[in-house]
Inverse folding.
């Protein structure tokens, strides 16, 4: 009963966040900010990916992932559109949310691979370690992206040495927090519940593909 | 053991030994120059490079020879940079040193994962997954190294610019990919197992000994 009401609450929150995104789109059209009109449309498409995956491909992403993706997009688009990046530490907040999202996705992928792939069997603490280093490594790739963009297009994505170090530090902190949460959830068994649907759906798809291949060979 | 392997092992050992002699000379030079910071630095470097031999004698450890060689080489490069000012006189010397440090880190990472995969029940990993973890491990350790530089507890002078930071991180990534590619081909050919087998078995033995001791004590 409690789980069902939590799920309903999550779905409502997910839709409220999407409505906020639509409001952002209306504001950017009203202000004629073309870059953010494009940004809002793109963000809306990305935020609807979980719904599209569920409807067209029968793949159910964990609801929390849906909410995290939408929050990260709202913070970024809202920051640019409403000038919130000028608020001190707003950039730190958005960076943290994005890194936390990456860490969460990494944990889900590792957990599903561990449960449904023969090529990986991992202790939960080893999983936590891999999640932390994955989040740091993706943070580095993100910094590479900004650095190369600055070199090629002459933009100022990277604000300097201290800022890059700060970003990398936030990535690490987000990875560590997610690792702690993940291990606690695995111990309680709630991570299994969270990813069960997705894992089984992927499993079914792989089995279906193998069967088709085998039938084709016969 | 094949003949070529024995010759290679002997040569690499003697090369590693030669590197240590150079390090002792560096230590004497540092004392002669009364550069006490680098006396300590060279001493630590020398200690790290002979650590495998110390472990071998006392705890019956045998580290893979590549690791032994890389530790000696990296320490020499770093001490050379500090003591002979190569960091300032030779252009991009710090990048060369950084690359070899990253190679060492990547090799340690891969060896650790491989040994854990072979000798610990808590990890079973496909070789390509191992390669992936090696790359991200090297990148993550590179970031930690940059944090240490940023905090600068020792008060050592480091070049702190965004470009150098990004170049260092790029070199970590390249070194990680390099070792991952070599590692996968070594695993495929079975050579990586030969390289780390002795070390892994020794860890196994130590763990088993400890468990047996505990069981006896309980009884």
């Amino acid at each position: 009963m409690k789980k069902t009401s939590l799920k309903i609450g999550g779905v409502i929150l997910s839709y409220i966040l999407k409505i906020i995104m639509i409001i952002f789109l209306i504001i950017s059209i009203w202000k004629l900010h073309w870059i953010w009109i494009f940004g809002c449309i793109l963000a809306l498409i990305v935020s609807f990916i979980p719904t599209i995956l569920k409807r067209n491909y029968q793949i159910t992403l964990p609801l929390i992932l849906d909410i995290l993706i939408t929050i990260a997009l709202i913070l970024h688009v809202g920051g640019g559109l409403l000038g919130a990046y000028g608020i001190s530490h707003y950039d730190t907040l958005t960076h943290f949310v994005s890194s936390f999202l990456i860490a969460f996705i990494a944990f889900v992928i590792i957990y599903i691979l561990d449960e449904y792939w023969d090529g990986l069997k991992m202790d939960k603490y080893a999983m936590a370690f891999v999640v932390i280093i994955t989040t740091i490594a993706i943070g580095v790739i993100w910094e590479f992206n900004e650095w190369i963009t600055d070199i090629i297009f002459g933009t100022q994505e990277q604000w300097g040495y201290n800022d890059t170090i700060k970003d990398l530090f936030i990535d690490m902190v987000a990875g560590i927090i997610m690792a702690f949460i993940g291990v606690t959830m695995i111990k309680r068994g709630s991570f299994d519940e969270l990813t069960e649907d997705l894992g089984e759906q992927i499993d079914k798809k792989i089995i279906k593909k193998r069967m088709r291949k085998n039938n084709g060979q016969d | 053991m094949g003949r070529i392997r024995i010759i290679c092992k002997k040569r690499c050992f003697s090369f590693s030994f030669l590197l240590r002699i150079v390090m002792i000379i560096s230590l004497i030079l540092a004392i002669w120059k009364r550069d006490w910071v680098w006396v300590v630095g060279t001493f630590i470097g020398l200690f790290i490079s002979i650590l495998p031999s110390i472990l071998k004698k006392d705890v019956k450890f045998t580290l893979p020879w590549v690791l032994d060689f890389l530790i000696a080489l990296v320490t020499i490069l770093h001490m050379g940079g500090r003591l002979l000012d190569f960091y300032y006189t030779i252009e991009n010397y710090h990048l060369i040193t950084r690359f070899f440090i990253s190679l060492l880190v990547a090799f340690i990472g891969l060896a650790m994962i491989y040994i854990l995969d072979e000798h610990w029940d808590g990890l079973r990993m496909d070789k390509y997954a191992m390669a992936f973890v090696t790359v991200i491990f090297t990148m993550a350790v590179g970031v930690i190294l940059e944090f240490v530089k940023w905090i600068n507890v020792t008060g050592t002078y480091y070049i702190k610019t965004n470009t150098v930071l990004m170049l260092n991180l790029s070199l970590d990534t390249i070194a990680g990919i390099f070792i991952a590619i070599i590692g996968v081909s070594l695993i495929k050919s079975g050579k990586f197992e030969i390289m780390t087998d002795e070390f892994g078995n020794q860890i196994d033995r130590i763990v088993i000994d400890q468990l047996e001791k505990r069981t006896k004590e309980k009884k």
